Amino acid sequence: MIKGKRGMSSQQYFYVAEAVFALFVFIILLGYIQNAASNSLFEQNFMARDAAMLTDAVYSAPGEISLDYDTAIKENTNFLLKYSLPKLNFGISFGNSKVEISSDDTFRTSPVYYLFGEDSRTNFEPTGQLKGNITIAKANNELKITEVTKKNE
Amino acid sequence: MNKKAQESFTIVQYIPRMIFLIIVLFSVVFLVRSYILENLDVKNTQAELFINRIYYSPNGISYYDTELKRAIPGIVDPKLITNENLDALMNFNDANFIAGKITLFDVQSKAIASAVYNSQTYDRWKPISQQQGFTGAGAVTRFNRTIVVNFIDEGKEKEGMLKFEVLLPGK
Question: Model ipTM?
Answer without folding.
Answer: 0.80
